[in-house]
Amino acid sequence: MEDLLSELEETFSGTASNGTTSNCTALIKGGQLELQAPEPGTNQLAIEAINYLDAEGADPETNPDLAQIFGSEGSSFTVTESSDNELQPLRTTSYATASATISQQQDGYGDGYLQDISVKPDGTIVGRYSNQQSVEQAQVRLADFADYRGLEPTSNNAYKATAMAGEPTIGEAGEGAFGQVLGNTLEGSNVDLGREFTDMIMTQRNFQANSKSITTADEIFDTLMRLK
């Protein structure tokens, strides 16, 4: 098939019934032999016969494997005019100026879903996606106060601003007096020592009460044994 296609995709000339000569290009398209004229117009070209030759010039008698897709060698054909009027010859134009190659590059990436989040020292929150892309989502802003003792402690090692603490100064981590943001780190300096001591005393009292209950129960059992 490839050998036959290489033979048919060549320009050849034929003589019409009116004695005029026509040049056209023959190729296989959709399993049919198609002739394309280089110039639009009426063409009376007819094919009398097709001879099959491979790349080395051998015919079906010397090369039995040569495909004869249009029948036996020497078969007659009739050219039918196509209704496709949009077929235009391929033309190129060259100018006496410098030329350049126009190329395109693809810099996109596929869809992805969020897999991990990390925080930079400057407070920038970075999201890592399944398509190997990292996108900066937001930035954590820091606040500074004139009187830290005026801050009101809340739950989860957090503090709430009050009027006694003064007006907050907002800035970015690493600038001026602001420190850095450490990701995946719990700030130990926010521990409420008073509450921690209270919890420790309550735990100790509960332990003493449980111990006293065991002692009392032991004394009751001992008294019952003596009565017996």
Task: Report on the architecture of this protein.
This protein has 228 residues and is an alpha+beta fold. The chain contains two helices and ten strands, in the order H-E-E-E-E-E-E-E-E-E-E-H. The strands form four sheets. It has a three-stranded antiparallel beta sheet with strand order 1-2-3, with no helix packed on it. Strands 4-5-6 form a three-stranded antiparallel beta sheet, with no helix packed on it. A hairpin with a 2-residue loop joins strand 2 and strand 3 (32-36).
List keywords for this structure.
228 residues, alpha+beta, 3-stranded antiparallel sheet, 21% strand, elongated, disordered N terminus
Condensed summary:
The chain is an alpha+beta fold. The chain is 18% helix and 21% strand.
